[in-house]
Write a structure and sequence with these properties.
Strand 19 (350-355), helix 11 (358-375) and strand 20 form a beta-alpha-beta unit. The protein has a domain at 89-211: Diaminopimelate Epimerase, Chain A, domain 1, CATH 3.10.310. Strands 8, 15, 16, 17, 18, 19, 20, 21 and 22 form a nine-stranded mixed beta sheet that branches. By secondary structure, the chain is an alpha/beta fold. Helix 3 (88-94) crosses helix 7 (219-234) and helix 10 packs across helix 11 (358-375).
Length: 551
Amino acid sequence: MLPKCLRWLWVLLMTQAAWSGDLILRNGRIWTGDAARPEAEAVACRDGRIVAVGTNAEIMKWAGVGAEVIDLKGRRVVPGFNDSHVHFLDGGRNLASVQLRDAKSEDEFRQRIAAFAAKHPKGRWITGGDWDHENFASARLPVRQLIDDVTRDNPVFVQRLDGHMALVNSQVLRMAGITRDTKDPPGGTIVRDAAGEPTGILKDAAMDAVHRVMPALSAAEVEEGLRAAMRYANERGVTSVQDMSASPDVLRVYQKLLREGSLTVRVYGLQPLRQWQRLAGPGVQAGFGNEMLRIGGLKGFADGSLGSTTAWFFDSYNDAPGNTGLASDEMLPPGRLPENVVGADGAGLQLAIHAIGDRANHEVLSVFENAIRRNGKRDRRFRIEHAQHLRARDIPRFVASGVIASMQPYHAIDDGRWADKRIGAERAKGTYAFRSLLDAGVTLAFGSDWFVAPMDPLLGIYGAVTRRTLDGKRPDGWVPEQKITVAEAVRAYTYGSAYASHEEKTKGVISVGYLGDFAVLDSDVFAISGEKVENVKVDMTVVGGRIVYSR
Protein backbone atom coordinates (compact mmCIF):
# COMPACT_ATOMS: atom_id res chain seq x y z
CA MET A 1 0.00 0.00 0.00
CA LEU A 2 1.02 3.65 -0.32
CA PRO A 3 2.58 5.04 2.89
CA LYS A 4 0.04 6.97 4.95
CA CYS A 5 1.77 10.31 4.38
CA LEU A 6 1.66 9.80 0.60
CA ARG A 7 -2.03 8.91 0.71
CA TRP A 8 -2.85 12.22 2.38
CA LEU A 9 -0.62 14.08 -0.10
CA TRP A 10 -2.51 12.39 -2.96
CA VAL A 11 -5.86 13.45 -1.48
CA LEU A 12 -4.64 17.03 -0.99
CA LEU A 13 -3.39 17.34 -4.55
CA MET A 14 -6.55 15.89 -6.00
CA THR A 15 -8.71 18.12 -3.82
CA GLN A 16 -6.85 21.21 -5.00
CA ALA A 17 -7.21 20.12 -8.62
CA ALA A 18 -11.00 19.69 -8.49
CA TRP A 19 -13.44 18.64 -5.78
CA SER A 20 -15.13 15.98 -7.88
CA GLY A 21 -14.79 12.43 -9.15
CA ASP A 22 -15.50 11.01 -12.59
CA LEU A 23 -17.12 7.88 -11.14
CA ILE A 24 -18.57 7.19 -7.73
CA LEU A 25 -19.76 3.82 -6.51
CA ARG A 26 -21.88 4.20 -3.38
CA ASN A 27 -24.01 2.17 -1.01
CA GLY A 28 -22.05 -1.03 -1.51
CA ARG A 29 -20.00 -3.59 0.37
CA ILE A 30 -16.48 -2.95 -0.83
CA TRP A 31 -13.76 -5.48 -0.03
CA THR A 32 -10.67 -3.36 -0.42
CA GLY A 33 -7.86 -5.86 0.12
CA ASP A 34 -6.26 -3.10 2.22
CA ALA A 35 -5.51 -4.22 5.78
CA ALA A 36 -5.74 -0.61 6.96
CA ARG A 37 -9.39 -0.43 5.88
CA PRO A 38 -10.74 -3.84 4.81
CA GLU A 39 -14.32 -2.73 4.17
CA ALA A 40 -15.94 0.43 2.83
CA GLU A 41 -19.31 1.67 1.56
CA ALA A 42 -18.20 3.79 -1.36
CA VAL A 43 -15.31 4.73 -3.61
CA ALA A 44 -14.56 7.67 -5.92
CA CYS A 45 -12.36 7.69 -9.04
CA ARG A 46 -10.90 10.61 -10.94
CA ASP A 47 -8.72 10.41 -14.06
CA GLY A 48 -8.66 6.64 -13.80
CA ARG A 49 -7.43 6.42 -10.20
CA ILE A 50 -9.04 6.06 -6.81
CA VAL A 51 -9.20 9.38 -4.97
CA ALA A 52 -11.29 8.38 -1.96
CA VAL A 53 -12.54 5.27 -0.15
CA GLY A 54 -14.92 5.47 2.78
CA THR A 55 -18.50 5.91 3.91
CA ASN A 56 -21.31 7.09 1.67
CA ALA A 57 -21.25 10.50 3.33
CA GLU A 58 -17.51 10.89 2.87
CA ILE A 59 -17.51 9.86 -0.75
CA MET A 60 -20.58 11.82 -1.86
CA LYS A 61 -18.57 14.97 -1.19
CA TRP A 62 -16.78 14.07 -4.42
CA ALA A 63 -20.01 14.10 -6.44
CA GLY A 64 -19.36 17.23 -8.44
CA VAL A 65 -20.79 18.31 -11.78
CA GLY A 66 -20.51 15.57 -14.39
CA ALA A 67 -19.70 12.77 -11.97
CA GLU A 68 -21.40 9.45 -12.67
CA VAL A 69 -22.85 8.08 -9.44
CA ILE A 70 -23.77 4.40 -9.28
CA ASP A 71 -25.97 3.11 -6.47
CA LEU A 72 -24.67 -0.38 -5.77
CA LYS A 73 -27.73 -1.23 -3.67
CA GLY A 74 -25.67 -3.27 -1.26
CA ARG A 75 -23.80 -5.30 -3.87
CA ARG A 76 -20.29 -6.63 -3.23
CA VAL A 77 -17.31 -4.96 -4.92
CA VAL A 78 -13.82 -6.44 -5.17
CA PRO A 79 -10.67 -5.21 -6.96
CA GLY A 80 -10.76 -6.06 -10.66
CA PHE A 81 -9.68 -9.64 -11.25
CA ASN A 82 -6.21 -10.09 -12.69
CA ASP A 83 -5.77 -13.35 -14.59
CA SER A 84 -2.10 -14.25 -14.16
CA HIS A 85 -1.90 -16.76 -17.00
CA VAL A 86 -3.81 -16.57 -20.29
CA HIS A 87 -3.24 -17.20 -23.98
CA PHE A 88 -5.37 -14.26 -24.94
CA LEU A 89 -5.41 -14.42 -28.74
CA ASP A 90 -5.88 -18.18 -28.79
CA GLY A 91 -8.79 -17.84 -26.38
CA GLY A 92 -10.44 -15.16 -28.48
CA ARG A 93 -9.93 -17.08 -31.71
CA ASN A 94 -11.24 -20.29 -30.16
CA LEU A 95 -14.54 -18.62 -29.32
CA ALA A 96 -15.32 -18.80 -33.05
CA SER A 97 -13.81 -22.25 -33.69
CA VAL A 98 -15.14 -25.79 -33.37
CA GLN A 99 -16.16 -26.56 -29.77
CA LEU A 100 -15.06 -30.01 -28.61
CA ARG A 101 -14.45 -29.55 -24.88
CA ASP A 102 -17.67 -31.24 -23.79
CA ALA A 103 -17.87 -33.88 -26.56
CA LYS A 104 -18.82 -37.06 -24.68
CA SER A 105 -17.84 -39.67 -27.27
CA GLU A 106 -15.69 -40.26 -30.32
CA ASP A 107 -18.83 -40.14 -32.45
CA GLU A 108 -19.86 -36.75 -31.09
CA PHE A 109 -16.28 -35.53 -31.57
CA ARG A 110 -16.42 -36.59 -35.23
CA GLN A 111 -19.89 -35.12 -35.82
CA ARG A 112 -18.96 -31.71 -34.45
CA ILE A 113 -15.89 -31.49 -36.68
CA ALA A 114 -17.93 -32.65 -39.68
CA ALA A 115 -20.61 -30.01 -39.04
CA PHE A 116 -18.00 -27.26 -38.66
CA ALA A 117 -16.19 -28.29 -41.86
CA ALA A 118 -19.46 -28.34 -43.80
CA LYS A 119 -20.12 -24.68 -42.95
CA HIS A 120 -16.69 -23.36 -43.94
CA PRO A 121 -14.90 -22.97 -47.26
CA LYS A 122 -12.43 -25.43 -48.71
CA GLY A 123 -8.90 -24.86 -47.49
CA ARG A 124 -9.99 -23.24 -44.22
CA TRP A 125 -7.95 -24.63 -41.32
CA ILE A 126 -9.96 -26.13 -38.49
CA THR A 127 -8.15 -25.32 -35.24
CA GLY A 128 -8.86 -24.92 -31.55
CA GLY A 129 -11.26 -27.54 -30.30
CA ASP A 130 -9.99 -28.04 -26.73
CA TRP A 131 -11.05 -31.70 -26.65
CA ASP A 132 -10.65 -34.05 -23.71
CA HIS A 133 -10.54 -37.78 -24.41
CA GLU A 134 -11.11 -38.41 -20.70
CA ASN A 135 -14.74 -37.49 -21.41
CA PHE A 136 -15.08 -40.47 -23.76
CA ALA A 137 -16.32 -43.74 -22.25
CA SER A 138 -13.31 -45.42 -23.83
CA ALA A 139 -10.88 -42.66 -22.69
CA ARG A 140 -8.98 -43.47 -25.93
CA LEU A 141 -7.05 -40.87 -27.87
CA PRO A 142 -8.80 -39.97 -31.14
CA VAL A 143 -7.12 -40.93 -34.42
CA ARG A 144 -6.97 -39.33 -37.87
CA GLN A 145 -9.16 -42.03 -39.42
CA LEU A 146 -12.01 -40.78 -37.23
CA ILE A 147 -12.16 -37.46 -39.11
CA ASP A 148 -10.38 -37.96 -42.45
CA ASP A 149 -13.49 -38.62 -44.53
CA VAL A 150 -15.38 -35.59 -43.15
CA THR A 151 -12.46 -33.15 -43.57
CA ARG A 152 -11.16 -33.96 -47.04
CA ASP A 153 -11.13 -30.27 -48.00
CA ASN A 154 -9.88 -28.80 -44.72
CA PRO A 155 -6.59 -29.14 -42.85
CA VAL A 156 -7.31 -30.05 -39.20
CA PHE A 157 -5.20 -29.21 -36.15
CA VAL A 158 -7.39 -29.51 -33.05
CA GLN A 159 -5.69 -29.40 -29.67
CA ARG A 160 -6.41 -31.22 -26.46
CA LEU A 161 -7.62 -28.73 -23.86
CA ASP A 162 -4.19 -28.57 -22.19
CA GLY A 163 -2.51 -27.47 -25.42
CA HIS A 164 0.16 -30.18 -25.15
CA MET A 165 -1.08 -32.50 -27.84
CA ALA A 166 -3.21 -32.24 -30.94
CA LEU A 167 -5.02 -34.38 -33.48
CA VAL A 168 -4.32 -33.68 -37.15
CA ASN A 169 -5.90 -35.29 -40.17
CA SER A 170 -3.94 -37.15 -42.85
CA GLN A 171 -3.82 -34.04 -45.03
CA VAL A 172 -1.87 -32.18 -42.36
CA LEU A 173 0.52 -35.08 -41.79
CA ARG A 174 1.37 -34.91 -45.50
CA MET A 175 1.76 -31.11 -45.40
CA ALA A 176 4.09 -31.37 -42.39
CA GLY A 177 6.06 -34.23 -43.93
CA ILE A 178 5.35 -36.58 -41.03
CA THR A 179 5.55 -40.27 -41.98
CA ARG A 180 6.27 -43.60 -40.29
CA ASP A 181 9.97 -42.86 -40.87
CA THR A 182 9.91 -39.47 -39.11
CA LYS A 183 11.76 -39.62 -35.81
CA ASP A 184 10.34 -38.16 -32.62
CA PRO A 185 11.83 -34.69 -32.09
CA PRO A 186 13.53 -33.85 -28.78
CA GLY A 187 10.78 -33.03 -26.29
CA GLY A 188 7.99 -34.44 -28.45
CA THR A 189 6.21 -37.64 -29.45
CA ILE A 190 4.57 -38.76 -32.68
CA VAL A 191 2.02 -41.32 -31.49
CA ARG A 192 1.97 -44.41 -33.72
CA ASP A 193 -0.31 -47.39 -34.16
CA ALA A 194 0.67 -51.06 -33.87
CA ALA A 195 1.95 -50.99 -37.47
CA GLY A 196 4.17 -47.97 -36.78
CA GLU A 197 2.02 -45.47 -38.69
CA PRO A 198 1.32 -42.02 -37.19
CA THR A 199 -2.16 -41.94 -35.63
CA GLY A 200 -2.50 -38.19 -36.06
CA ILE A 201 -1.76 -37.44 -32.38
CA LEU A 202 1.26 -35.18 -31.90
CA LYS A 203 2.59 -34.35 -28.44
CA ASP A 204 4.45 -31.18 -27.44
CA ALA A 205 7.47 -30.48 -29.70
CA ALA A 206 6.09 -32.86 -32.34
CA MET A 207 3.45 -30.18 -33.06
CA ASP A 208 6.16 -27.76 -34.25
CA ALA A 209 6.25 -29.41 -37.68
CA VAL A 210 2.61 -28.38 -38.15
CA HIS A 211 3.13 -24.88 -36.82
CA ARG A 212 5.71 -24.37 -39.56
CA VAL A 213 3.20 -25.03 -42.34
CA MET A 214 0.18 -23.25 -40.85
CA PRO A 215 -0.56 -19.86 -42.44
CA ALA A 216 0.10 -16.83 -40.26
CA LEU A 217 -2.89 -14.82 -39.07
CA SER A 218 -3.45 -11.44 -40.64
CA ALA A 219 -3.42 -8.31 -38.46
CA ALA A 220 -7.20 -8.09 -38.94
CA GLU A 221 -7.65 -11.67 -37.70
CA VAL A 222 -5.47 -10.96 -34.66
CA GLU A 223 -7.47 -7.83 -33.86
CA GLU A 224 -10.75 -9.72 -34.21
CA GLY A 225 -9.50 -12.36 -31.77
CA LEU A 226 -8.22 -9.83 -29.21
CA ARG A 227 -11.45 -7.83 -29.29
CA ALA A 228 -13.44 -11.00 -28.68
CA ALA A 229 -11.10 -11.91 -25.84
CA MET A 230 -11.48 -8.49 -24.21
CA ARG A 231 -15.28 -8.73 -24.28
CA TYR A 232 -15.11 -12.21 -22.77
CA ALA A 233 -12.75 -10.99 -20.04
CA ASN A 234 -14.77 -7.91 -19.11
CA GLU A 235 -17.96 -9.95 -18.84
CA ARG A 236 -16.24 -11.99 -16.12
CA GLY A 237 -14.84 -9.09 -14.09
CA VAL A 238 -11.31 -9.42 -15.48
CA THR A 239 -9.56 -6.07 -15.74
CA SER A 240 -5.96 -7.28 -16.21
CA VAL A 241 -4.40 -10.27 -17.96
CA GLN A 242 -0.90 -11.65 -18.17
CA ASP A 243 -0.62 -12.95 -21.72
CA MET A 244 1.80 -15.85 -22.03
CA SER A 245 1.67 -15.71 -25.85
CA ALA A 246 2.25 -12.03 -26.64
CA SER A 247 4.28 -12.45 -29.84
CA PRO A 248 5.47 -9.35 -31.74
CA ASP A 249 2.49 -9.64 -34.10
CA VAL A 250 0.13 -9.69 -31.13
CA LEU A 251 1.94 -6.81 -29.41
CA ARG A 252 1.64 -4.75 -32.58
CA VAL A 253 -2.15 -5.09 -32.45
CA TYR A 254 -2.23 -4.40 -28.70
CA GLN A 255 -0.42 -1.14 -29.43
CA LYS A 256 -2.94 -0.27 -32.13
CA LEU A 257 -5.80 -0.82 -29.70
CA LEU A 258 -3.96 1.25 -27.08
CA ARG A 259 -3.52 4.17 -29.47
CA GLU A 260 -7.21 4.05 -30.34
CA GLY A 261 -8.25 3.93 -26.70
CA SER A 262 -9.86 0.53 -27.35
CA LEU A 263 -8.00 -1.56 -24.77
CA THR A 264 -10.50 -2.50 -22.06
CA VAL A 265 -8.11 -4.91 -20.34
CA ARG A 266 -4.67 -4.11 -18.95
CA VAL A 267 -2.05 -6.41 -20.49
CA TYR A 268 1.31 -7.72 -19.31
CA GLY A 269 2.72 -9.49 -22.35
CA LEU A 270 5.30 -12.27 -22.10
CA GLN A 271 7.42 -13.61 -24.95
CA PRO A 272 9.34 -16.89 -25.41
CA LEU A 273 12.30 -17.40 -23.12
CA ARG A 274 14.37 -18.94 -25.91
CA GLN A 275 14.18 -15.59 -27.73
CA TRP A 276 15.16 -13.48 -24.72
CA GLN A 277 17.80 -11.53 -26.63
CA ARG A 278 15.04 -10.04 -28.77
CA LEU A 279 14.08 -7.97 -25.72
CA ALA A 280 17.47 -7.69 -24.06
CA GLY A 281 19.16 -6.38 -27.22
CA PRO A 282 17.38 -3.00 -27.24
CA GLY A 283 17.53 -2.81 -23.43
CA VAL A 284 13.95 -3.73 -22.53
CA GLN A 285 13.60 -4.79 -18.89
CA ALA A 286 10.74 -6.12 -16.77
CA GLY A 287 7.85 -3.67 -16.51
CA PHE A 288 8.58 -1.66 -19.67
CA GLY A 289 5.45 0.18 -20.80
CA ASN A 290 2.54 1.92 -19.13
CA GLU A 291 -0.50 1.11 -17.00
CA MET A 292 -2.37 -0.43 -19.94
CA LEU A 293 0.37 -2.37 -21.75
CA ARG A 294 3.62 -3.68 -20.31
CA ILE A 295 6.28 -6.12 -21.47
CA GLY A 296 9.55 -7.51 -20.13
CA GLY A 297 8.49 -11.00 -19.09
CA LEU A 298 9.58 -14.30 -20.62
CA LYS A 299 7.79 -17.66 -20.67
CA GLY A 300 9.68 -20.96 -20.79
CA PHE A 301 8.76 -24.64 -20.57
CA ALA A 302 10.19 -27.44 -18.48
CA ASP A 303 7.71 -30.20 -19.44
CA GLY A 304 4.27 -30.98 -20.87
CA SER A 305 0.97 -31.83 -19.18
CA LEU A 306 -0.60 -34.50 -17.01
CA GLY A 307 -3.45 -35.22 -19.42
CA SER A 308 -1.02 -35.80 -22.28
CA THR A 309 1.27 -37.93 -20.04
CA THR A 310 4.10 -35.54 -20.88
CA ALA A 311 4.40 -33.91 -17.44
CA TRP A 312 7.86 -34.81 -16.10
CA PHE A 313 7.88 -36.89 -12.90
CA PHE A 314 10.49 -38.67 -10.80
CA ASP A 315 8.40 -41.86 -10.95
CA SER A 316 6.47 -43.50 -13.77
CA TYR A 317 2.82 -42.89 -14.52
CA ASN A 318 0.62 -45.51 -12.89
CA ASP A 319 -1.24 -46.05 -16.15
CA ALA A 320 1.89 -45.91 -18.34
CA PRO A 321 4.64 -47.95 -16.66
CA GLY A 322 8.12 -46.88 -17.70
CA ASN A 323 6.95 -43.44 -18.81
CA THR A 324 8.02 -40.58 -16.55
CA GLY A 325 6.95 -37.89 -18.99
CA LEU A 326 9.02 -35.53 -21.13
CA ALA A 327 11.47 -32.79 -20.38
CA SER A 328 10.65 -30.02 -22.85
CA ASP A 329 12.90 -29.34 -25.80
CA GLU A 330 13.97 -26.14 -23.99
CA MET A 331 15.61 -28.35 -21.35
CA LEU A 332 17.66 -30.17 -24.00
CA PRO A 333 20.54 -30.48 -24.19
CA PRO A 334 21.06 -30.26 -20.41
CA GLY A 335 22.29 -26.82 -19.46
CA ARG A 336 20.42 -25.00 -22.21
CA LEU A 337 17.60 -23.70 -20.02
CA PRO A 338 19.89 -22.66 -17.13
CA GLU A 339 22.06 -20.60 -19.47
CA ASN A 340 19.05 -18.89 -21.04
CA VAL A 341 17.66 -18.09 -17.58
CA VAL A 342 20.99 -16.67 -16.35
CA GLY A 343 21.32 -14.52 -19.46
CA ALA A 344 17.76 -13.22 -19.40
CA ASP A 345 17.79 -12.62 -15.66
CA GLY A 346 21.08 -10.79 -15.92
CA ALA A 347 19.48 -8.51 -18.52
CA GLY A 348 16.73 -7.54 -16.05
CA LEU A 349 13.91 -9.55 -17.60
CA GLN A 350 11.35 -11.51 -15.57
CA LEU A 351 11.23 -15.30 -15.85
CA ALA A 352 8.09 -17.45 -15.77
CA ILE A 353 8.59 -21.17 -16.45
CA HIS A 354 5.90 -23.78 -17.01
CA ALA A 355 6.35 -26.82 -14.74
CA ILE A 356 3.72 -29.51 -14.14
CA GLY A 357 5.38 -32.71 -12.88
CA ASP A 358 7.27 -32.96 -9.59
CA ARG A 359 10.57 -33.51 -11.42
CA ALA A 360 9.97 -30.45 -13.62
CA ASN A 361 9.22 -28.25 -10.60
CA HIS A 362 12.29 -29.56 -8.78
CA GLU A 363 14.53 -28.84 -11.77
CA VAL A 364 13.12 -25.34 -12.34
CA LEU A 365 13.73 -24.42 -8.72
CA SER A 366 17.33 -25.53 -9.20
CA VAL A 367 17.59 -23.40 -12.35
CA PHE A 368 16.33 -20.36 -10.43
CA GLU A 369 18.70 -21.00 -7.51
CA ASN A 370 21.59 -21.18 -9.96
CA ALA A 371 20.63 -17.82 -11.49
CA ILE A 372 20.47 -16.18 -8.06
CA ARG A 373 23.93 -17.51 -7.20
CA ARG A 374 25.39 -16.25 -10.46
CA ASN A 375 23.59 -12.92 -10.80
CA GLY A 376 23.19 -11.95 -7.14
CA LYS A 377 20.14 -11.24 -5.02
CA ARG A 378 17.48 -8.74 -6.01
CA ASP A 379 13.69 -8.41 -6.21
CA ARG A 380 13.33 -10.43 -9.45
CA ARG A 381 10.12 -12.41 -8.69
CA PHE A 382 10.77 -15.64 -10.51
CA ARG A 383 7.54 -17.50 -11.33
CA ILE A 384 6.64 -21.12 -11.82
CA GLU A 385 3.59 -21.37 -14.02
CA HIS A 386 1.21 -24.10 -12.79
CA ALA A 387 3.42 -25.49 -9.97
CA GLN A 388 1.04 -28.39 -10.26
CA HIS A 389 2.65 -31.43 -8.63
CA LEU A 390 5.07 -30.74 -5.79
CA ARG A 391 7.06 -32.83 -3.37
CA ALA A 392 6.70 -31.44 0.16
CA ARG A 393 10.47 -31.01 0.45
CA ASP A 394 10.51 -28.57 -2.49
CA ILE A 395 7.93 -26.11 -1.11
CA PRO A 396 10.40 -24.32 1.22
CA ARG A 397 12.59 -23.68 -1.81
CA PHE A 398 9.87 -21.40 -3.24
CA VAL A 399 10.17 -19.23 -0.15
CA ALA A 400 13.98 -19.23 -0.03
CA SER A 401 14.23 -18.01 -3.63
CA GLY A 402 11.14 -15.77 -3.60
CA VAL A 403 9.47 -17.85 -6.33
CA ILE A 404 5.82 -17.08 -7.05
CA ALA A 405 3.42 -19.99 -7.63
CA SER A 406 1.29 -18.88 -10.59
CA MET A 407 -1.55 -21.41 -10.45
CA GLN A 408 -4.92 -22.13 -12.05
CA PRO A 409 -7.41 -23.54 -9.51
CA TYR A 410 -10.01 -24.60 -12.09
CA HIS A 411 -7.53 -27.25 -13.23
CA ALA A 412 -7.82 -28.94 -9.82
CA ILE A 413 -11.53 -29.65 -10.21
CA ASP A 414 -11.04 -30.68 -13.82
CA ASP A 415 -7.94 -32.92 -13.54
CA GLY A 416 -9.19 -34.31 -10.22
CA ARG A 417 -11.70 -36.46 -12.12
CA TRP A 418 -8.97 -38.74 -13.44
CA ALA A 419 -5.58 -37.68 -12.01
CA ASP A 420 -5.42 -40.50 -9.45
CA LYS A 421 -5.29 -43.12 -12.20
CA ARG A 422 -2.29 -41.29 -13.65
CA ILE A 423 -0.21 -40.75 -10.52
CA GLY A 424 -2.02 -42.42 -7.61
CA ALA A 425 -3.52 -40.94 -4.44
CA GLU A 426 -0.21 -40.60 -2.58
CA ARG A 427 1.47 -38.38 -5.18
CA ALA A 428 -1.79 -36.47 -5.59
CA LYS A 429 -1.40 -35.09 -2.05
CA GLY A 430 1.06 -32.55 -3.46
CA THR A 431 -1.19 -31.56 -6.37
CA TYR A 432 -2.41 -27.94 -6.53
CA ALA A 433 -1.09 -27.54 -2.99
CA PHE A 434 -2.68 -24.14 -2.33
CA ARG A 435 -2.91 -24.56 1.45
CA SER A 436 0.62 -25.89 1.87
CA LEU A 437 2.10 -23.13 -0.28
CA LEU A 438 0.23 -20.33 1.52
CA ASP A 439 1.08 -21.73 4.95
CA ALA A 440 4.74 -21.82 3.95
CA GLY A 441 4.63 -18.13 2.98
CA VAL A 442 4.58 -18.51 -0.82
CA THR A 443 2.81 -15.85 -2.87
CA LEU A 444 -0.02 -17.33 -4.96
CA ALA A 445 -1.04 -15.67 -8.23
CA PHE A 446 -4.23 -17.14 -9.66
CA GLY A 447 -5.25 -17.36 -13.29
CA SER A 448 -7.10 -19.59 -15.72
CA ASP A 449 -4.72 -20.73 -18.48
CA TRP A 450 -7.49 -19.73 -20.91
CA PHE A 451 -7.98 -21.19 -23.62
CA VAL A 452 -7.13 -24.36 -21.65
CA ALA A 453 -9.75 -23.57 -19.00
CA PRO A 454 -12.55 -20.98 -18.77
CA MET A 455 -11.37 -17.46 -17.98
CA ASP A 456 -13.80 -17.15 -15.08
CA PRO A 457 -12.26 -16.08 -11.75
CA LEU A 458 -15.41 -16.97 -9.81
CA LEU A 459 -15.19 -20.57 -11.06
CA GLY A 460 -11.52 -20.55 -10.12
CA ILE A 461 -12.33 -19.29 -6.62
CA TYR A 462 -14.99 -21.99 -6.32
CA GLY A 463 -12.37 -24.57 -7.34
CA ALA A 464 -9.80 -23.38 -4.81
CA VAL A 465 -12.34 -23.24 -1.98
CA THR A 466 -14.26 -26.48 -2.57
CA ARG A 467 -12.00 -28.64 -4.78
CA ARG A 468 -15.21 -30.38 -5.91
CA THR A 469 -14.45 -32.19 -9.17
CA LEU A 470 -16.55 -31.43 -12.24
CA ASP A 471 -18.02 -34.93 -12.34
CA GLY A 472 -19.67 -34.42 -8.94
CA LYS A 473 -17.99 -37.49 -7.49
CA ARG A 474 -16.00 -35.67 -4.80
CA PRO A 475 -18.48 -33.44 -2.94
CA ASP A 476 -16.04 -32.96 -0.06
CA GLY A 477 -13.24 -32.05 -2.43
CA TRP A 478 -10.29 -33.75 -4.08
CA VAL A 479 -7.31 -33.58 -1.71
CA PRO A 480 -9.50 -31.50 0.64
CA GLU A 481 -6.64 -30.60 2.97
CA GLN A 482 -5.42 -28.20 0.26
CA LYS A 483 -8.58 -26.03 0.29
CA ILE A 484 -8.22 -22.31 1.02
CA THR A 485 -10.71 -19.60 2.02
CA VAL A 486 -12.68 -17.33 -0.29
CA ALA A 487 -10.71 -14.30 0.92
CA GLU A 488 -7.40 -16.06 0.24
CA ALA A 489 -8.55 -17.02 -3.26
CA VAL A 490 -9.80 -13.50 -4.08
CA ARG A 491 -6.49 -12.07 -2.87
CA ALA A 492 -4.60 -14.49 -5.14
CA TYR A 493 -6.73 -13.30 -8.09
CA THR A 494 -6.11 -9.62 -7.30
CA TYR A 495 -3.13 -8.60 -5.17
CA GLY A 496 -1.23 -11.86 -5.77
CA SER A 497 -1.43 -11.53 -9.54
CA ALA A 498 -0.45 -7.86 -9.32
CA TYR A 499 2.57 -8.81 -7.22
CA ALA A 500 3.53 -11.42 -9.82
CA SER A 501 3.96 -8.67 -12.43
CA HIS A 502 5.60 -6.08 -10.11
CA GLU A 503 2.38 -4.02 -10.05
CA GLU A 504 1.14 -4.44 -6.49
CA LYS A 505 1.65 -0.72 -5.80
CA THR A 506 -0.86 0.28 -8.46
CA LYS A 507 -3.46 -2.49 -8.70
CA GLY A 508 -5.01 -5.38 -6.82
CA VAL A 509 -6.21 -3.20 -3.92
CA ILE A 510 -8.99 -0.61 -3.55
CA SER A 511 -7.08 2.21 -1.93
CA VAL A 512 -6.29 5.87 -2.59
CA GLY A 513 -3.84 6.29 -5.45
CA TYR A 514 -4.49 2.88 -6.96
CA LEU A 515 -6.02 2.28 -10.37
CA GLY A 516 -9.83 2.39 -10.46
CA ASP A 517 -10.38 -1.25 -11.46
CA PHE A 518 -13.38 -3.03 -9.91
CA ALA A 519 -15.68 -6.02 -10.31
CA VAL A 520 -19.23 -5.61 -9.00
CA LEU A 521 -20.81 -8.94 -8.05
CA ASP A 522 -24.47 -9.88 -7.76
CA SER A 523 -23.85 -11.80 -4.50
CA ASP A 524 -21.51 -11.42 -1.57
CA VAL A 525 -18.90 -14.14 -2.06
CA PHE A 526 -17.74 -13.67 1.54
CA ALA A 527 -21.19 -14.27 3.01
CA ILE A 528 -22.26 -17.40 1.13
CA SER A 529 -21.01 -20.97 1.28
CA GLY A 530 -18.11 -21.88 -0.97
CA GLU A 531 -20.34 -24.28 -2.90
CA LYS A 532 -22.49 -21.35 -4.09
CA VAL A 533 -19.61 -19.23 -5.40
CA GLU A 534 -19.77 -20.84 -8.85
CA ASN A 535 -23.23 -19.30 -9.34
CA VAL A 536 -22.15 -15.73 -8.58
CA LYS A 537 -22.33 -13.36 -11.56
CA VAL A 538 -20.47 -10.20 -12.45
CA ASP A 539 -22.88 -7.28 -12.75
CA MET A 540 -20.37 -4.60 -13.71
CA THR A 541 -16.70 -4.24 -14.60
CA VAL A 542 -14.78 -0.98 -14.25
CA VAL A 543 -11.33 -0.30 -15.73
CA GLY A 544 -9.65 2.97 -14.87
CA GLY A 545 -12.88 4.48 -13.56
CA ARG A 546 -14.66 3.61 -16.82
CA ILE A 547 -17.51 1.10 -17.00
CA VAL A 548 -16.52 -1.44 -19.66
CA TYR A 549 -19.24 -4.00 -18.95
CA SER A 550 -22.69 -3.91 -17.37
CA ARG A 551 -24.94 -6.97 -17.25
